[in-house]
Amino acid sequence: MTGEEEKPCFKRENKFIVKSGCKKRMWRSLKQILTAERTLLWPNEAVLYYSINAPPTFKPTKKYSDISGLPAPYVDRHSKLFYANVEEFATVRSLPMDITAGYLQLRGANNLVG
Amino acid sequence: MENILVLKDYKTVPDIVHEYGPTLKFGHIPLVIDNGSYQCRVGWSIYEEPHLIFKNLIARPRKDRCKKDAEPPVTPPIQIGNDILNIEAVRFQLKTQFDKNVVTHFEVQEQVCDYIFSHLGIDSEGSVPHPIVMTEAFVTPNYCRQLMSELLFEGYGIPAVSYGVDSLFSMYRNDIGDTALIVNCGYHTIHIIPVIRGKVIGEHARRINLGGSEMISYLHKLLQLKYPVHVNAITMSRIEEILQEHSSVALDYQEEIRKWSNPDYYEANVKKVQLPYVQTASSSGLTAEQQKERKKEMARRLLEINARKREERLAEDEEQLNQLLAIQDMIEDGDTDEFNEAIKGFDIKSYEDLQRQISNINVRIEKNKQRILAAANAEENLEVRPTPGRMQPPSDPEAFQAWLNETRAKYRSLVARRESRRARRAAMAKRRSAAAAERMRVISRLAAAGDDFGDQDSDWDAYKSISREADSDSEADGERLVELEEALREYEPPPAADQRHTTHQLHLAIEPYRAPELMFQPSMMGNLEAGLAESMEYVFKHFSPEDQLLLANNVFLTGGCSQFPGLKERLERELLEMRPFQSTHKVVKAKNPSLDPWYGARDFAGSNEFENWCVSKEDYYEMGGEYLKEHYASNKYYKSPAPIADNNLAPAGDANVVKEEIVVDC
């Protein structure tokens, strides 16, 4: 795609669109923007993006069975999956590695140590 | 079946280029753009409805990989918004200008703007001569607004722009007074914004970093894990459809899932979603019977070819033998000269050589004859022998059924045996399990066994029981299993068509409640933020009891994700729980949660004061790109402080470090 050819008539020039082949401008991610914003000396009353993040939860998190979503009183020590009853335990034990890893990742528990 | 849901797989319709009449062209009509991270809605302020509603996505196809010099590389065009007819086909090339709920990628934004303006038919030369009302995220970073203004003023030459917050527009559109607690459930975030007497209390607003897109990907992954076979049929768009049309928020999640743990309730209420099912033709369009027939035919033909070759060779050998015998006759007749002549032609050196060759050929002929005989016998056998090793079912239908059941039972028991053996081996591999202890016991008994070990054959089974490897039993079982499997596959009546459909159904039980529940329990996806109810409680705490009551009596629910059935009731229940005893509360849902921001912004653009709330081109050059005219539905403007000069930075580390000398007593 060449910028000039496809430029609509209401534009004088492309502002940010670059021709293919030219060096692409690297756009800052939101995280980078926020980090940069943080380094500035803002007045006290200023409300910024990062300052309205929700508080961390103070309630104990409930455990639900990874495979069915039922309340899960048990943890399979082998795969670390939560399960609710005997039948589920049998299922949990028969699951292949990639599925158990998927469930753990879904719960955000895949990188816990131990 | 009574309650099977069929996915509609919605298709988008490409947007038309709208007419750009003289009223619009010369009327200085404001253009209203609700630039949401899910959808973008665009329309003129003088019309009732937005002209364009499209997903804020572009698909940039990769360049042609075949780089032939002959033809110039053809780049397929970029598809934007509703141009993307099949979103799943370009899923991996999708781009959006948004990072969370904030625009950060302005090259994509510019492409989207091009799309917007050209589809509105704007044809004025060199500029877009309309003031623009643009929505932005609550507390958008100045950096992003600056780039947006730069794009609009310098890229499109617009005369003026006004920025506003979508949820505030929606609130004023719904005319619910000037004090409310806005709960805006969006595609990437949930905002809780307290507004008191028309004033947005920004410092006590909170944002939960989770929204519709997270719910979609959660449910997507969940169902893919539940149905690994259908990984490719479970697409994001289908999940989106399930979430939009068949999901709801539970009034009491714990109670809800307790109900589902009852199998009867499950059976009665499970939702079955039919995935598209294609009748798979058997591999080559032939039945098993035909395939077998064909195989037989090929084998027969091969045999025939071999037989013909053998016969040809036999004839050849016999011919040679005759010639050699004729030469032998010559020498016996005493024609030495003729003999010498003849053996030259045959490459034979002497009489002995000749005799050896004759005997060789004789042996060869004999062998060939035997082979031909054997082959003929085998051919006969092939006709009659009923392939040994294969299971043959009885032909009588009743007996056949019995045989089938028996085979199935055998198959199942074998599978069970294999499973138990596997489990035992797995347990044995671990220390301290019962199986491992048993193994150690057997080993120690073996060591202590006297000379009479081996007198009985069963003694040797001890080795089988302690072996960690697959033993001969499992091998034999494996072979038997394959045999049974084959027989079952061949003779089992094929499942009826409607039964086969059921294997392509997704059973949704708790899942349609589980995904929206993420709003209240982000911990379910490993997010440690407080959920919606807890965050609301947190926000309430920062206000005086009187203001709390005002807010609680006007909780305003807006945003695309607020359309889940049951969300309003759930919030009312949560409020009842968190508010003081016997205090009142009320939840108001926006009339049109998705479009009200646009309507609100349209009303705003039509108001008399609109001119005063716009950043003009002069303002832009004067105040910089981040500048914003504050109004009732806008963010607050804080001028970005100058970057801290280097010498103000924390002094070099050395000066602050207190050096301590450590004296070690010896």
Account of the 3D structure:
Chain A has helices at 3-6, 30-38, 86-94, 97-106; strands spanning 74-75, 82-83. Chain A is mainly α and 114 residues long. Chain A starts with a helix and ends in an 8-residue tail after the last helix. In chain A, strands 1-2 form a two-stranded antiparallel ribbon. Chain A has four helices and two strands; from the N terminus they run H-H-E-E-H-H. Chain A has a domain at 10-51. Helix content of chain B is 47%, strand content 11%. Residues 384-388 and 649-659 of chain B have low confidence and may be disordered. In chain B, helix 5 runs antiparallel to helix 17 (511-517), helix 9 packs antiparallel against helix 10 and helix 9 packs antiparallel against helix 11 (351-384). Chain B has 23 helices and 20 strands. Chain B is of the alpha/beta class and 666 residues long. In chain B, the strands form five sheets. A six-stranded mixed sheet of chain B has the order 4-3-2-10-11-20, with helices on both faces. In chain B, strands 12, 13, 14, 15, 18 and 19 form a six-stranded mixed sheet that branches. Chain B has a three-stranded mixed sheet with strand order 1-16-17, with no helix packed on it. Chain B: One of its GO terms (cellular component) is nucleus. Chain B: Belongs to the actin family. ARP5 subfamily.
Can you describe this structure in just a few lines?
The complex is a heterodimer of chains A (114) and B (666). Chain A is mainly alpha-helical.
